[in-house]
Amino acid sequence: MQPAHPLLDTPLKAGAAVFPSRLVLAPMAGLGHVAFREVLAAYGGYGFMVTEMCNARAVPRENRRLSPVFRWRDEEAGSLVCQIFGGEPGEMAAAARRIEAEGLSGVDINMGCSVAAICKKGYGAALLKDPERAVAIVRAVREAVRCPVMVKFRSGWENTPDLAVDLARRFEDAGADLLTFHPRVAPDRRSRPPRWEHIRAVARAVSIPVLGNGNVFSAADCARMLDETGCAGVSIGRMAIARPWIFAELSGAFEPDEGVFLRAALAVIEAVWRHYEPERAIKMYKKYAPYLAANFVYGHSLWPGLVRGQTREDMTENAVRILGAGPRVASTPNAFLFTA
Fold first, then answer.
1. What angle do helix axes 162-174 and 196-205 make, rounded to 10 degrees?
2. In this structure, are residues 77 and 49 in contact, taking their beta carbons and an 8 Å threshold?
3. If we measure between CA atoms, which residue out of 145, 151, 143, 161 comes closest to residue 96?
4. 6-250: which CATH topology?
5. Among this protein's residues, is 113 annotated catalytic?
6. Candidate list 113, 119, 147, 231, residue with the active-site label
C-alpha cells in the first residue's frame, strides 16, 4: 500500500524534536485516554499522540498513577505530548516544567476548547479574546522548558482568518515550535464545515509547522487537506476514535479487513478495564461506543445494543454478538454519532 500523500513519508520537525510521521492524534476529553492510546499505539503510523486536556493548576501535584487524565504508559512517553489548559502564565509554565521533567515529548497549550465550563473561566478558546494573555502564556511556557511547545487554536470568535493569522505570527515570535489549527469559530460545535482556506492562510503566515485539523475522514480527505492548505501535517481526532488504525492505514502500513472492528472493540474493552476501575471503565467505554457504531450503515440502531449492561462481560458479549454478525460498513462514518 502507498501512503495517502507523499509528504507522509517525511519526518516532522518541531523544535529540537523529530517525529516519524506527520499524522497526529488530536486531544479529546474523555476519549484520548491512556487505554485508548494503547490500542492506537499497537497499530502505529502516528508521529505523536496528545493527551486529554489537563488542568495546568493541578498538573504539578498530580499522581500520574491515579489521575484519570495525567496518566501514560512509560513506553509511550517519547511520543506523547501533554495538553494543558489554564489562564495564568505562571501556572501554565509550572505545569510545563512538570511535563518536561516526566520525559514527555512536548507541551500543547489549549486555545481551542469552546465548552462553556472552560471558556467562562477564561481558558481554552476564551484566550483568543485576550491576545496579550494568550501570547504571554506561550512565552512563559517557552521560557520554562526546552522541549517542543505547541499551541492548538481556532479561528477565533468571528469567521475570518485575520485573528488566527495574527496570533500564529505572535505565537511563533513567542517561541512556539508547532501550531495545530482548527478552522472553525469558537462557538461552532461542528455545525458548519471547517474553513480549510483559513488553514492555508495560517500556514503561509509562519515558518514553523502548522497541522491542519477538521473533517479528515479518509485518505482522500487527508491528501486534499495537505494539497489545498500547504499544512505540514494532519491532526485527526474523531476518526481516530472510530478507526484507531487510521494512521497506519493512511501511512500505507495497514489494510483493514472485515474483522477489524470487532478486534478493535475487544482491544478497547480489555485496555479500559485494565487501566481503570470498573465504574470509570464502563463510562469510558460507553463514551467510545458511539464512535464505534458510527462506522456502520445502521449505526444508530446498533449503538444501544453495544452499550446494554453495566459490566465488562456485558460489553464483550454485545460486541461479539453485534459486530461478529458483520454489519454493513458505511463508506464514511456517521458524524452525527460523533457528538453523542
1. 40
2. no
3. 145
4. TIM Barrel (3.20.20)
5. yes
6. 113
Sequential DSSP letters for 55-101: ETTTGGG--TTT-SSS---GGGGGGEEEEEE-S-HHHHHHHHHHHHH
Is pTM beyond 0.90 here?
yes
Q: Tell me which DSSP letter residue 127 carries.
A: G
Residues 6+ apart with CB under 8 A from 121: 87
Distance CA 221, CA 216 (A): 5
pLDDT in tens, 180-220: 999 998 765 666 788 999 999 999 999 999 999 999 999 99
Domain boundaries, the chain: 6-250, 260-339
Given a cut of 80, whether residue 339 has pLDDT beyond it is no
Q: Is 327 helix (H, G, I), strand (E, B) or coil?
A: coil
* pLDDT value at 340 more than 80: no
Q: List Cβ neighbours of 109 (8 Å cut-off, separation of 6 or more).
A: 83, 84, 85, 92, 137, 138, 141, 149, 150, 151, 152
* Weakest mean pLDDT among 129-133, 262-266, 328-332: 328-332
Whole-number pLDDT of residue 191: 62
Rounded distance between C-alpha atoms, residue 53 and residue 295, angstroms:
26
Q: How far, rounded to the nearest angstrom, does the alpha carbon of residue 277 sit from its chain's CA centroid? A: 24
Annotate 246-300 with DSSP letters as a single string.
HHHHHTTS----TTHHHHHHHHHHHHHHHHS-HHHHHHHHHHHHHHHHTTBTTHH
- Tell me which H or E stretch contains 210: strand 210-213
> Quick one: cell of 212?
491542519
